[in-house]
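Incident log, structure service

09:12 report received: a user says their structure output differs between two submissions of the same chain.
09:20 pulled the input from the user's history:
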Amino acid sequence: MKVLVIGGGGREHALVWKLRQSPRVSALFCAPGNAGIAQLATCVPIPISDHEQLAAFARDEGIELTVVGPDDALAAGIVDHFEAAGLRIFGPRQSAARLESSKAFAKEFMERHGIPTARSGTFGHPAAARAFLREMPLPVVVKADGLALGKGVIIAQTIAEADAAIREIMEERRFGDAGAQVVIEEFLEGEECSIHALVDGDSYLLFPSAQDHKRAFEGDQGPNTGGMGTFSPAAKLVTPALETRIRREILDPFLQGLKRDGLDFRGMLFPGLMITADGPKVLEFNCRFGDPETQVLVTRLESDLLDLLEATIDCRLAEVAARWSPEAAVCVIMASPGYPGDYPRGLPISGLDQSGECVVFHAGTKMVNGSMVTAGGRVLGVTALAADLPAAQAKAYGAVRSIHFEGAQFRGDIAARGLSA
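09:34 re-ran on a clean worker, output below:
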């Protein structure tokens, strides 16, 4: 089977890496890809926003399945475009992808179907947002309604900080059109975890738990990022009893809500959860594989990923099961200096051949005159699989220490939450 993966980050490298292992895949392409992906697949220089050209390539090349990585492509309706052209594609349609592309739409969905989440209000005018803000206890969370590369969430400790967040999002448009509306919600106390489940509209297939590290600096300090590392399983937090609650209180009502609202959702559901004293609550819905969660999940996956994706498209998830390694996985992100703010590009990378048994997933890299250089904020996802979490953590950091580029930034405490008593 000929397969096309759309995207060019660490998540897409992980998907390509896993799909490359399928005996059913005869040819693998990625648009636009990156320097690491190019070692496993044929990279096609088509931007993810050019749905017409991507569909033409898939048609002309005889692509039998396209797998969408990024959220913005789903939000822009790439699945609808491909399906209208008679092309087979993995991911939810634009109407269902609104559960991620509009936080207001997602909040309304959750409230309508009894899915636990934070108290909130949605506003299209700064004055109304500021009035509601003054009714909320501090700290408070201010979110851009639309997609903002994982950075449109500001936790404000004071009224002044919240006012500034509203100004940045709505008036200065720091996140562009994503800030046309803001969602202001109560701050939830607890511990975050990432849940992934393939959903075909009738059934879901729950993946193992993972835990992301969003803040830039150790000890969960500094600004939010797209993710500085992750580990799986998050067994200390997501116990069997908690998993049962997540199924009963979140995933089951989600499926029922899709049916009641007539939403055709076939793809990956990735809700970010806060585990509070009252139980799990949804922070946000994502309608695609997480990044960097995918890196640890596919490393642990022993089943053929292609089989699972096709079962989702064909509404056959109830007929399949997935096999998972009992081992633990840790992914440490190596980022450019200055990330998530301004950062340099074109820094030479060395030591990639010294990573041992770790898999190094490329996020922001390219080849220049035969040399690997940085080309983004998050550069590499160094991922290790080992018998237990301490061993996986040690292996990942051993590889990180062997890889070099000027000013490389990474957290030294990835997976520490999973190791604490």
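09:41 both user submissions now match this output. Likely a transient worker issue. Closing.
09:42 reviewer note: The mean pLDDT is 95. The first helix runs from residue 10 to 19.
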